[in-house]
Amino acid sequence: MTQLKLSMANPDKVRICSLAPGYLATVSSESIVRVWDTVNEESYLLSLTDLDESLSGDKAVCVAFNEKKKVLAVGTLNGKLAKWKMIGSDFRNESDWHTLAVKDIKSIT
């Protein structure tokens, strides 16, 4: 069994989801999503602010991945839903994530 230490700013608020074998996405009440390549022990960041300026200062608090649609969804503290779509098949390539529209979900009942 291999062990990997995942280091983040708010370890008590971390949320994790699996993207594919060997790949995880994490959020921890920051303005970023970290994508981990657990095999090669590397990671990169997806920024909420780079996705949409309306997310400036917002914090990612939950994360989920739809494997069939290859869509990574992140819920924010201010009630927004940010989404990225994996266009390629290689999760090691940060540029294969394409942004989708940000939705305000705090008013949806």
Largest sheet: 5 strands, antiparallel
Quote the beta fraction.
Answer: 35-45%
**Which class do the helix and strand fractions yield?**
mainly beta
- In N-to-C order, the SSE pattern is EEEEHEEEEE
CA-atom Rg in angstroms = 13 Å
Tally of structural domains:
1
Portion of residues in helices? under 10%
Q: What sort of overall outline do the alpha carbons produce when their principal axes are compared?
A: globular
Number of strands: 9
Count of individual helical segments: 1
Uncertain ranges: none
How far apart, in Å, are the first and last alpha carbons?
44 Å
Instruction: Report the average pLDDT across residues.
Output: 88
Compile the SSE list and pairings.
Layout: E1 15-20, E2 23-27, E3 32-37, E4 42-47, H1 48-51, E5 60-66, E6 71-76, E7 80-86, E8 97-99, E9 103-104
Antiparallel strand pairs: 1-2, 2-3, 3-4, 5-6, 6-7, 7-8, 7-9
In short:
The chain is mainly beta and 109 residues long. The protein has 1 helix and 9 strands.
Describe the structure.
The chain is mostly beta strands and 109 residues long. The chain has one domain (12-104). The protein is 4% helix and 44% strand. Strands 5, 6, 7, 8 and 9 form a 5-stranded antiparallel sheet that branches. The protein has a 4-stranded antiparallel sheet with strand order 1-2-3-4. A hairpin with a 4-residue loop joins β3 and β4.
What attributes characterize this protein structure?
109 residues, mainly beta, five-stranded antiparallel sheet, four-stranded antiparallel sheet, globular
